[in-house]
């Protein structure tokens, strides 16, 4: 049953990260053809923004070393296909294949900047500066991820001003949108509201913000609802709840796209996603990976008697 709640948006744009954040942590190489089929199925299920892969150093993320082979297999889809690029080398590789959307990925903490990018926070920002400038000059859309916005496995709770500073730096260099990452999934709703309020009070417009929750402590949906109540309308999620970050201890799966769509449908919020097709895709992917999806919604819907659905 659909029951709307006050103070929520009419529509949410889901930024699907299953093919990138979802797969990057998989130990066994997933064949390129399977990744391509995954992206095609996600598009068929109605997802309009599908993060396809990363043009990072192949030794740092071996699972995505096939970016050059994968991207042409999905480039023709009528959806937005952002890709991660850490530096100019990554941007060159992405532009050579015709990518129209890229994402740089900063950290609010020094420990993760070092672990993920082999740089300090400010050295990483300096690395992104020419990437963003060149992308904008080529009329390419740029997303700026910010990891460890709430807690960091090495440094603990992350002070709000530290997060605000890096957000402002990313916007100042020309990022079109930001994604606030709870990389290790420790945030709770009050913390989400406090961060969004702090950003708003420092002049960061809420329509430039997306949220990216990992579900380690089962808080991702509650955190999403808090963000929607604050005016956020872009939410990152990963089909089937796949995911994690190879450079952050204790980063488990992302918010599952199916769990998100179930909640949004119940609230009468439009996403354009066909939940049945999406669930079938995650069941198919779980078969390829050889283990069941951690998404509660995938499990509930895929075990249901067809007559009940
Ligand atoms: P580095 O070792 O400092 O690299 O790594 P470098 O700049 O010193 O270059 C060393 C060599 O790598 C050079 O080759 C470069 O050409 C090559 P050589 O001259 O020695 O022959 N190289 C590259 N090759 C291919 N593609 C490239 C590239 N760049 C340099 N793009 C680097 C620095 C940034 C490259 C490395 O740290 C890296 O690739 N890191 C990526 C880590 C990553 O992808 N992490 C996961 C994504 S972030 C995440 O999951 C969080 C998120 O989901 C949000 C959240 O949850 O919080 C987004
Ligand atoms: Mg992530």
Structural features, described:
By secondary structure, this protein is an alpha/beta fold. Helices cover 42% and strands 14% of the residues. The protein has helices at residues 18-22, 32-44, 67-74, 88-96, 110-117, 121-137, 160-172, 189-201, 220-229, 257-266, 275-289, 296-303, and strands at residues 13-16, 49-50, 53-54, 83-84, 101-107, 141-147, 151-152, 156-157, 177-182, 209-213, 234-237. The strands form two sheets. The chain has a nine-stranded parallel sheet with strand order 2-1-11-10-9-6-5-4-3. It has a two-stranded antiparallel ribbon with strand order 7-8. α3 links the parallel β3 and β4 (83-84). The protein is globular, with a radius of gyration of 18 Å. The chain starts with 12 loop residues before the first strand and ends in a 6-residue tail after the last helix. The protein binds 3-hydroxy-3-methylglutaryl-coenzyme A and magnesium ion (MG). 3-hydroxy-3-methylglutaryl-coenzyme A (HMG) binds next to α4, α5 and β6. One of its GO terms (molecular function) is lyase activity.
